[in-house]
Write a structure and sequence with these properties.
27% strand; 369 residues; 4-stranded parallel sheet; alpha+beta; binds magnesium ion; binds adenosine-5'-diphosphate; 17 strands
Length: 369
């Protein structure tokens, strides 16, 4: 079973690693010479618009998938003429553009924050529709909080609009959410769908720092989140893993964004669920039976950002699982993660506090649960 993965970052790396026990061989396609998935799987290094390289890539694979949503849609469509591409390139097209994404969410009946496309000739019009405070975002290319700015006044808003020098933009109402959650589901070719428990996510400066799974007190929200996943995936005849980022406001869930791929907030599933998101993604795209998404106890996933802490103190902690991505440390870069597993939240909390102090992790103090 040969799988081609467009993109060779840590998600591609973890997909490739999940393939080994199943006898699935992955090859990654990435123009970057140092793509970290290339350390664990064959790496085809070529630009995304190199027709010959893409044809050779497709020749040796049974199915092609992608591990980041900014792969050009044309690349995925070109490959689709030769070999199945799962999830559908349509998902890339929709979810790499924040305007199409939000319009699609509304179309399938999933509530979102108020939003409006910004007409660069008349930017104030869009602000009237959503009000202040608001968040200005580039329609394309943003990640880890990049390409967005919060504005509290018309003046700040106009400055934010000017900052991206004519790039297509969207403005959203700023949501005073109680917490951020994500819903991760997997859908097979026959329409069978499973969802992982909801995950509670803590971001700092736009980057995910900590995920808790299952999210405490989230049982009553799960049916709604599952219904949203089902609407999204059924509408697209989606095959593979999909993540839906949500804001919780009271008992309401508002959709923030969709990732048509495995997701950082699902890394805990490697040790904390019966089947990891990576394995389930491979199973789905290869048309194999899906695995259970049930959790094993409770988990906390801490991202390692910027630099790699000394590993010995981490490895000494019972229930801690360290994953390093083989990337050169750089400010703001995700270089690894640690998943802590425990039987209940009380012991998880204790273990997390111990790990933060022993490993001198720079988790912001505000992280509490
Ligand atoms: N409309 C909003 N209201 C409040 N906070 C927001 C809003 N949009 C984004 N954020 C915050 O910024 C983070 C990153 O924004 P997001 O749209 O998910 O972009 P990305 O994850 O691609 O960088 C979110 O997880 C959330 O913490
Ligand atoms: Mg996000």
């Amino acid at each position: 079973m040969e799988v081609g993965i467009l993109g060779g970052g840590q998600l591609g790396r973890m997909l490739a690693l999940a393939g080994y026990p199943l006898g699935v061989r992955c090859t990654v396609y990435d123009p970057a010479p140092d793509a970290c998935a290339g350390q664990v799987a064959p790496h085809m290094r070529a630009p995304f618009d190199d027709a010959d390289a893409l044809a050779r890539f497709a020749q040796d694979t049974q199915v092609i998938t992608y591990e980041f949503e900014n792969v050009p849609v044309e690349t995925a469509r070109r490959l689709e003429a030769q070999v199945p591409v799962r999830p559908t390139p349509r998902a890339l097209e929709l979810f790499q553009d924040r305007l199409l994404e939000k319009q699609f969410l509304q179309q399938v009946g999933i509530p979102t924050p108020a939003f409006a496309p910004i007409d660069l000739e008349n930017p104030a019009d869009a602000l009237e529709q959503v009000g202040c405070p608001c968040v200005v975002k580039t329609r394309r290319g943003g990640y880890d909080g990049k390409g967005q700015a919060v504005a509290h006044t018309l003046d700040e808003y106009l400055k934010a609009v000017a900052r991206w020098g004519g790039m297509p933009l969207i403005v959203e109402a700023f949501v005073p959410f109680e917490r951020e959650l994500s819903a991760i589901g997997v859908r097979g070719r026959n329409g069978e769908m499973h969802a992982y428990p909801l995950v509670q996510n803590h971001h700092h400066e736009g980057i995910l720092r900590l995920s808790l799974a299952p999210a405490p007190d989230s049982n009553t929200l799960l049916p709604t989140a599952q219904e949203y996943l089902k609407r999204l995936m059924d509408a697209l005849q989606y095959v593979g893993v999909l993540a839906l980022e949500l804001f919780q406001v009271g008992d309401q869930l508002l959709a923030n964004e969709v990732a048509p791929r495995v997701h950082n907030s699902g890394h805990w599933t490697i040790e904390g669920a019966h089947t990891s998101q990576f394995e389930n993604h491979l199973r789905a795209i290869l048309d194999l039976p899906l695995g259970s998404t049930a959790p094993r106890g409770v988990s906390a996933m801490v991202n390692l950002i910027g630099d790699i802490p000394p590993i010995a103190p981490i490895l000494r902690i019972e229930g801690a699982h360290l994953h390093l991505y083989g990337k050169t440390p750089r400010a703001g870069r995700k270089v690894g993660h640690i998943t802590l597993c425990a039987d209940d939240y009380k012991s998880l909390k204790r273990a997390l506090a111990r790990m933060i102090s022993r490993a001198s992790l720079s988790l912001p103090e505000w992280v509490s649960f």
